[in-house]
Specification:
The protein contains 27 helices and 37 strands. By secondary structure, it is α+β, with helices and mostly antiparallel strands. The chain is globular.
Length: about 1050
């Protein structure tokens, strides 16, 4: 046995001891202490994730505690596993253990006898932490013990709901199903040969839903072969998989004469058969006639969600049905069923001999709920019994799957901790940066000083920079007033209050700032690539896409969980040397500096390829552009763009407070004399407190004056109507459930050269006209003084994004306590049994997405209006009507299921849930139907992996996503959407992330080939989801409604309203 194997064996034995005796026995403590002080097993224990986080007290080297105000109980760094040496330990916590000639207060305190009661409290807390961990481990082992020893193969037909099935099956079976795309192998035999090498048996197959028809080879791949060559293996087909079984066994698969049904629910009744008598026999008696009761413990007429245009049709007469090898076992009434009983649609089928079953509806949908989960349980139970009967029966030839961790993520805690490759993940131990935070004195916590508004601060400090950003909760001021009237326990107040508390802004003025511009497949070949611009104008050109760059760069930054609070003794003094630097116990926001920017819609090419590189599917992107630039692309607007923000300002709308965030390269000592960050904080704080608060300027709208500005639509109303008709055809043929069709409106805004108008002025008008919780202003090289480089060559990019988005795409929050495990926030959805397999003290991350589907215009009631009360009541009626709209509920449900699927790729199985389904949120001009989906992020994945799994946002594509995107690309004539339909926000240095969906947005760029410095090209994207229930005129009107607030703001800007 080599040294590595011996070490691992020792670690395993140590771990067993720890679990059996949870560190309450003195001998166990002594045993661990000897190992640790020898310094031989630090990294091994940390990789286990068990010992590193268990609290126990032993004597520690004096220098480890010499300068701490309160001692730690662990004599080693919990993340690196290295012995703690004074300065190193202090550095990792933001302390300073040396005298300061600069006048900085030093934190230096030795342990005194009087602190022993404090140590006792710490030990008690450590005992509680250990007890909590033991309880988590007990719960995890209890759930794991109930899982079935069944290995399933999940054949993916490129559906957007496959990973919902994956998540359910992973909570039922000990091993998650192996997911293989239907065209990953040329044949079933090739798949079998590939899997045989790993010597693990497949116990059943699930064939996923998907777009298309069962008779089309590209739609099903090897699925029909799987049915043909596995007559004795349990198979469950869902939707398209159900139709594949019907087609293979000679039933007729046809377009439903009752029309497509997508996102709607129906009651299903099933035929009661003699399953119980068969299945109660001892299954070790080799009963080859064992049947699967799919509907065991499920009531008759249970509600299911349907997404299908095709049906499996059986002959009319019973004699004819008997001639087929399959039989129908469940039905629902069609919406147009006659009273004489006709119009029943087959909802489930079964082979008469082979263990093959199909369901037409979607048991994995959030709308089907617990009974859908039971169907999968019943199939898995049956597969387990069948496996036991046949003692590992292998369907004609040995069927194997890959046993590596890449394909089968073992849930047993030991294997996960020992073997899981976490090398790509950023960790606290390899943090590259210090994060410094200064809270500016003033605001509501100090009523003597009122703080300037975000608009004033951006105008005064950032507007003149070449590159700048403003993540603007422009509804925040109103919500701040509302929040004061709410108790801390009231969670049912304003639905967007939690999204409207903080605004973040910054620019390119920091020494570590760098700008990343990615020119992707939508641009000319000679322009493609990634350019990183460093301070001083030095460029680095990389042959990478933005996803690859972020996947490599974010882990290099490490995780900076802690922050150092900088407090100046005299904020008004020019002396930057007199300050204190202390660990900041809590910050009310997640942002810690990092990458701020956007991913345009065309990054879809890169995320698609990246996903296929990590899953068993072909990597070719058939629709990528091999030649010239995509139609409609603006060559001045990159496919994606980011700033690494090392200087940021954060405004708390609720408390009227400003925070300054500075990022420095990791250092042991923060010295006021040499730190540019300290100097920046001091100067900025002085500027903020010296600013005279100015109320936001009011728009000077000219009454009864019609704007002369006109907009051109990329596709006319007639063309848009034709596109909607084409969408209906694709949906009817089963190619898609929902298509998010969009259009572009554009105009040229011309100003005299002496005018002071700029894209920032447009944004300030927009944020007043259409305040939104996820609004943003982002500008690259778009000031008139910065459109050319130092050598007088034109800058590659020059644009501004003026965004008033109400929609959150994805957020990742750090250190959320057991949010996905307590079951209390699962809301509307049935929650399968779940316990995280990661029971260590490492930070947990919760991902959340809030899709919007369903929009209606509000009835605006102004105070003083004689019909004020009537308008309020009418506005409420409009909201209630939206809430009950069958069409909008269907649209919303489809996207909720799609996003559950996307998150299930990167979250711990079983943790994805829906705390709010189809809620109504009211904004300045519209009511919208919004849902919330959350999940616990699998520790293997980073925020950029989450983006990759989910991009583009499903609310901007439709479902199934891949097929829908291809159809939309054809419908929209290959035109680039640009930043519209993409996402904008930040990747924080502590692992957090927040991204919006770029909608309700104007993209502003200088007029190309113009001699004027003050002419602007403006483009606005707008669209809507097309379903089988959509009306062409209504959809066109909805598209214009969504664009209306931006159109009016651009017109107002053009008419020189709101400029100073």
């Amino acid at each position: 046995m080599n040294d590595s194997s011996s070490l691992k064996a020792t670690v395993c034995r140590a771990q067993t001891i720890v679990r059996k005796q949870p560190l309450r026995c003195q001998s166990v403590r002594l045993f661990l202490y000897v190992l640790l002080t020898l310094g031989k097993l630090h990294s091994a224990f940390v990789s286990l994730g068990q010992i590193s986080s268990v609290a126990f007290f032993m004597p520690a080297p004096t220098n480890a505690f010499a300068s701490l105000r309160k001692p730690s109980l662990l004599p080693f760094n919990r993340r690196t596993g290295k012995p703690v040496q004074g300065p190193a330990f202090i550095k990792s916590h933001g302390y300073h253990d040396m005298p300061s000639r600069s006048g900085m207060k030093v934190l230096n305190k030795n342990i005194e006898p009087t602190e022993l009661p404090y140590l006792s409290k710490k030990m008690q807390q450590a005992s509680l932490d250990s007890s909590s961990k033991n309880e988590k481990l007990r719960k995890h082992q209890e759930i794991e013990s109930k899982k079935l020893d069944v290995q399933l193969l999940l054949l993916d037909n490129y559906d957007s709901y496959t990973y919902n099935i994956y998540s359910y099956l992973s909570t039922i079976c000990k091993k998650p199903p192996v997911v293989v795309s239907n065209d990953a192998y040329e044949s079933w035999d090739e798949l079998v040969k590939s899997f045989e090498r790993d010597n693990i048996c497949i116990d059943g197959i699930v064939i996923s839903p998907g777009p298309g028809r069962p008779e089309v080879k590209k739609d099903l791949g090897i699925c029909l072969e799987a049915i043909k060559k596995n007559p004795n293996l349990p198979i469950l087909g869902v939707c398209l998989g159900h139709q594949a079984l019907g087609y293979y066994y000679n039933a007729k698969v046809k377009l439903s004469p009752y029309g497509p049904v997508h996102g709607l629910t129906s009651p299903v009744s099933y035929k009661v058969q003699d399953w119980e008598n068969k299945n109660d026999t001892a299954y070790n008696a080799h009963d080859e006639n064992l049947d699967c009761n799919l509907f065991e413990n499920i009531p008759q007429a249970f509600e299911v969600v349907r997404y299908h245009s095709l049906i499996v049709e059986f002959p009319a007469g019973q004699d004819e049905i008997e001639k087929l090898p399959i039989k129908p076992i469940a039905w629902c009434k069609s919406d147009t069923a006659a009273e004489n009983g006709e119009g029943e649609v087959c909802m489930a089928l079964q082979h008469r001999v082979n263990p093959h079953y199909g369901v037409q509806f979607h048991p994995e949908s959030v709308g089907t709920g617990e009974y859908g989960y039971r169907i999968f349980q019943n199939f898995c139970n049956f597969s387990f019994k069948k496996k036991c009967i046949n003692d590992g029966f292998k369907s004609g030839s040995e069927i194997y799957v890959d046993g590596s961790d890449e394909l089968i993520a073992e849930h047993e805690d030991e294997r996960n901790i020992i073997e899981q490759d976490m090398s790509k993940l950023p960790t606290k131990g390899n943090a590259k940066y210090n994060v410094l935070v200064h809270k500016v004195k003033g605001g509501r916590s100090n009523s003597d000083t009122s703080m300037p508004s975000p608009e004033s601060v951006f105008d005064n400090l950032l507007a003149g920079m070449d590159d700048s950003f403003w993540l603007d909760s422009s509804t925040g001021r109103k919500d701040a007033d509302l929040h004061e009237r709410l108790t801390n326990d009231n969670k049912d107040g304003c639905p967007i209050v939690s999204n409207s508390r903080f605004s973040i802004m910054g620019g390119d003025n920091g020494p570590l700032c760098r700008k990343i511009e990615y020119w992707g497949k939508d641009h000319k070949v000679e322009k493609r690539g990634l350019i990183v611009t460093y301070p001083g104008g030095r460029d680095e050109v990389l042959d990478q896409d933005i996803i690859t760059y972020m996947q490599e760069t974010i882990p290099e930054c490490g995780i900076t969980n802690s922050a150092i609070e900088i407090d100046f003794e005299d904020q008004s003094s020019d002396n930057t040397n007199r300050f204190t630097a202390t660990p900041m116990e809590s910050i009310p926001f997640q942002y810690r500096g990092g990458f701020v920017g956007y991913l345009g819609y065309e990054v879809r090419h890169d995320t698609r390829n990246s996903m296929c590189n990590h899953e068993i599917c072909p990597t070719s992107d058939e629709n990528s552009l091999a030649g010239g630039e995509q139609l409609g692309v603006n060559p001045q607007v990159p496919t994606a763009g980011f700033l690494f923000a090392d200087r940021s300002l954060v405004y708390d709308h609720w408390r009227d407070e400003w925070y300054l965030i500075a990022v420095e390269e990791y250092s042991e000592v923060i010295n006021g004399e040499s730190s540019q960050s300290i100097q920046w904080m001091k100067n900025t704080a002085k500027n903020l407190t010296a600013m005279v608060p100015i109320p936001p300027s009011e728009s000077r709208r000219v009454a009864d004056t019609e704007s002369k500005l006109s907009f051109a639509m990329r596709r006319s109303k007639e063309e848009y109507a034709a596109d909607i008709a084409r969408c209906h055809k694709e949906i009817k043929n089963g190619e898609s459930y929902e298509l998010c069709l969009t259009n572009q409106l554009s105009t040229l805004v011309e100003f005299p050269n002496e005018s002071s108008s700029s894209p920032l002025q447009l944004y300030k008008i927009l944020r007043k006209n259409n305040p939104a919780p996820f609004a943003a202003f982002l500008s690259f090289n778009n000031s008139r003084t910065r459109r050319r480089n130092v050598d007088n060559t034109p800058c590659l990019s020059s644009f501004s994004i003026c965004c008033s988005s109400p929609e959150r795409f994805l957020s990742v929050n750090h250190d959320v306590e057991d949010l996905a495990e307590n079951g209390e926030d699962h809301g509307w959805e049935f929650a399968p049994p779940f316990s995280s397999y990661d029971i260590s003290d490492s930070p947990k991350y919760i991902v959340e997405t809030k899709p919007i589907k369903g929009t209606v215009s509000r009835i605006i009631a102004n105070k003083g209006d004689p019909n004020f009360k009537e308008k309020i009541e009418e506005d409420q009626r409009v909201a209630r009507k939206l809430q009950k709209s069958e069409k909008n509920r269907a649209e919303n449900l489809m996207i909720v299921d799609l996003l559950r699927n996307d998150l299930s790729r990167v979250c711990e199985p079983g943790s994805v849930h829906v705390p709010k389904l189809m809620g109504i949120e009211s904004f300045a001009t519209v009511h919208q139907m919004v849902s919330t989906i959350r999940g616990l992020v699998d520790p293997k994945y980073t925020p950029i992996d989450i983006i990759t799994a989910s991009f583009p946002g499903g609310s901007m594509t439709g479902a199934p996503k891949l097929r829908s995107v291809d159809i939309l690309d054809d419908l929209e004539l290959g035109n680039s959407r640009g930043p519209y339909s993409g996402c904008l926000g930040y990747f924080s240095l502590n692992g957090a992330m927040d991204m919006n969906i770029v909608i309700r947005t104007a993209i502003v760029a200088p007029e190309r080939n113009s001699q004027s410095d003050n002419n602007w090209e403006v483009s606005i994207g707008a669209g809507g989801a097309i379903t089988a229930l959509s009306d062409s005129d209504d959809e066109f009107d909805e598209m214009l409604l969504k664009a209306s607030a931006i159109l009016k703001s651009v017109q107002e800007w053009h008419d020189n309203v709101g400029s100073k």
